Amino acid sequence: MKTKLLLLVCVCLINISANASVVLVGWDFSTLTGGSGNFGASPYAPGTIDNDVSAVGLTRNHTLGTGSGAANAWGANNFNIVTPSEASAITANNFYSFSITPDPLIAMSFESIGAYNIRRSSSGPSTGQWQYRIGTGSFADIGSDITWGAITTAAGNPQSLIDLSGISALQNVTETVTFRLIAWGATTVGGTFYFNDPLDTAANDLVLNGDLVAIPEPSRALLLGIGGLGLIFRRRRQ
């Protein structure tokens, strides 16, 4: 019985330890005042970030046009209006992106992109698609195309939580992961598209949720294992 207990202790010491689901990165848009030429900084750093990761903030990947930005929102205009489709939007770099990198000896498992809100003008992008990329690999779609909705006021268009837990490639990742949101269907170059804070509160408006796991260094794990075995052999010899 004592031998089995010591073996169990040894295994527990070597085993990795996981946290409960946490907000890995999160953004609050209530501090953005909008106004002439002010669509929010790019990259826009997350206001919430876990201690065991680093991130590149929300980034526009196409040239921002002139005009006035909405308050409590982060976004852009000047979207492609020719042959609107996911492929043409990618070619025109009409997407927002951010990336997250775990610290050494940390693995990430992604649970969800929390419920969020999209604001658009009547001539802004009407459709979009989330994608992810592991390291420098190819981007892959997350689910199907999203139709954003027709609300063009500050109330915006509520979007459902996006479940990531069933995507095996996004579990136990030790490389940088990039997420991007492609947008298309604008009818004028002045059409706008934003991540939005409809309630103007200090709470996060866009969050990436997941689990973080500490991976023991091989040498440390080996020493722990040898130490546990030593305790067992010592007990047997007494």
Structural notes for this entry:
The chain is α+β, with helices and mostly antiparallel strands and 238 residues long. The chain has two domains: 1-16 and 217-238; 17-215, Jelly Rolls (Sandwich). Helix content is 16%, strand content 37%. It has three helices and 17 strands. The longest helix has 20 residues, at 218-237. The radius of gyration is 23 Å and the shape is globular. The relative contact order is 0.26. The model is unreliable at 1-18 and 226-238 (pLDDT under 50).
Notable features of this structure?
238 residues; 6-stranded antiparallel sheet; 5-stranded antiparallel sheet; 17 strands; globular; disordered C terminus
Which helices and strands, and how do they pair?
Blueprint: H1 2-14, E1 17-18, E2 22-27, E3 35-36, E4 48-49, E5 53-60, E6 68-69, E7 73-76, H2 86-91, E8 95-102, E9 106-113, E10 116-120, E11 127-134, E12 140-147, E13 157-159, E14 162-163, E15 177-184, E16 193-196, E17 206-214, H3 218-237
Antiparallel strand pairs: 1-17, 2-4, 2-17, 3-6, 5-8, 7-16, 8-15, 9-14, 9-17, 10-13, 10-16, 11-12, 11-15
Order of helices and strands: HEEEEEEEHEEEEEEEEEEH
| Relative strand content | 35-45%
Largest sheet: 6 strands, antiparallel
Question: What is the CA-atom radius of gyration, in angstroms?
Answer: 23 Å
> What is the SS-derived class?
alpha+beta
> Portion of residues in helices?
10-25%
Number of strands: 17
Q: Measure the end-to-end span.
A: 15 Å
Compute the average pLDDT.
88
CATH class of the largest domain: Mainly Beta
- Quickly count the domains: 2
- pLDDT under 50 segments (min length 5)? 1-18, 226-238
CATH level 3 topology of the largest domain? Jelly Rolls
Shape: globular
Number of helices: 3
